[in-house]
Amino acid sequence: MNQTKGMVRMEMPVTREQIEFYRENGFVQIDNVLTQEEVAEMAEAMEEAMTEKSVNAVKTDKSGGSYYRVLNQKVNVWRDHGVMAKYSLHPKVAEIARLLSGASKMRLFHDHALWKMPEDSKATPWHQDAPYWPMNQTQALSAWIPVDDVDEKNGCMMFVPGSHKEGKLKGIDFLEPQNIFDYVQDKEANLKKPVVVPLKKGSCTFHSGLTFHYAYPNMSDKPRRVLALIYMPDGTTYSGAGHICTDNFGLQKDEPIRGGTFPILAREI
Ligand code: SIN
Ligand code: NI
């Protein structure tokens, strides 16, 4: 920690090279973001959050459903589980997201536990995230934080470097996926080979909402447990599109998405 005129400043949690890598490629791997103690605490809390009854968090499909085969997902676990709130609102992770995007203030849009269950698991098809978010701007990004080591056998991610430069394309149906590469005008010129990113627990990736990404099916005998956090720069405005986190929230089209429901978690000092 540095002291600056009474204010406590966090050590810069990413390097200049990592920021440049993110901006050039649309994703970046950051190692040892969480300690092993934090990972263990978060894993235990996420087990509870996934099995306990929710008041505010929303599960997107029931066990055995078609979407559940791709992802067993619960959105906004932080609103029901105090220990998950500690991680979903984690200042260091939010500050990394802020520095990567270059925003002066960063808000949480939502968290989601993204588990890939063992047996009968399907890949998460190639897609961009931005088409599903009800935002006019495209600077929002995700942190993807596994609490288990991940590789090609249990559902690690793959990214296409530079694909964020394609802009916002059409959303992909996760159950009957279209081929996102068909939407790219000049594939040979514009797209690089996908990069597989295995991770050790405690490490994570950040990816832009525009970056093409995919996750392998989980062929192991245990759940692949991930917490994903969606961040948006302060000032991001509502597009009017439907989304589980903004439906019935009373937002007018083009109004900033703000307030304590979408808290500011990092700000430039
Ligand atoms: C996954 O965890 O399988 C997919 C994550 C994502 O689409 O961002
Ligand atoms: Ni995604």
TrEMBL record:
Taxonomic superkingdom: Bacteria
Pfam families: PhyH (PF05721)
Protein name from the UniProt record: Phytanoyl-CoA dioxygenase family protein
InterPro entries per the UniProt record, alphabetical: Phytyl_CoA_dOase-like
4Fe-4S recorded as keyword: no
Keywords: Dioxygenase, Oxidoreductase
UniProt entry tagged with the keyword Transmembrane: no
Gene Ontology molecular-function annotations: dioxygenase activity
